[in-house]
Design goal:
Blueprint lengths: L1 E3 L6 H12 L3 E10 L5 E8 L4 E6 L7 E2 L2 E3 L1 H18 L2 E7 L7 H12 L4 E5 L5 H7 L6 E3 L5 H20 L1
Parallel strand pairs: 1-8, 1-9, 2-7, 7-8
Antiparallel strand pairs: 2-3, 3-4, 4-6, 5-6
Length: about 180
Amino acid sequence: MLITGRPGCGKTTLLREVVDALGTPAGGFYTRELRDGSGRRAGFELVTLDGRTATLAHTGTGGPHRVGRYGVDIEALERAGVPAIEAAVEAGQLVVIDEIGKMELLSTAFQRAVIAAVRRYRVLFGTVMLAAHPFADELKAQPDTLLFELNEANRAQLRGLLEAQLRAALGQLSV
């Protein structure tokens, strides 16, 4: 089950609200913005559902991996985010991934972890980039993927729908 939409439309906020409302065992990660002293976005931090953090991307990060003005720390993703996905899959928990986007998809280990979660028939709840990308597009096109596009007009009703769909999917796994 994936949420897509334009950057800044509230995908992460909606995902977190739904996961909190479910109150079910879950693992994985979400991302949050990092701001500089003047309040300008300076990067993104990965936060695992068990509370570990790692800087995923930052304007001050060097190296070969860049998305826009951000240097992407692939090793941080593979050190914190990938193991969080793998642990949730192994534990049979709801797998939460925010986001399946340009930065994260630079990592083949991340891509493998997403594929493993899908193949193991775990309930995966995440956000995915709206823009075209071969991996993201293939994931969105899978027959058992439910894709919801978030916008201002449908935010309130989408939250209830996502909660109901996830409760049903999680109930089927426990039978």
